[in-house]
Fold this protein.
Amino acid sequence: MSRKLHRPREIASSSSRPMTTSEVEEEYGIPVGTLRYWRHCDIGPRSYSVGRSVRYDRIDVEEWLEAQKLASARGGVA
């Protein structure tokens, strides 16, 4: 009887792995309290629940930050 060897799953790269609220704070400097408030008000980057935990996809955070930058940018060369 032969046994099949299972290869371990590849660990998702940090860019595709969902981020916790604390990880968003650490990487982007947005305080956890602000992220919670924005989530409560349905503003801020897109987030979702996994059980009782809130998660953010890095691409959603970055796209939201870019949209904020474009909407509020001032100055520069005309």
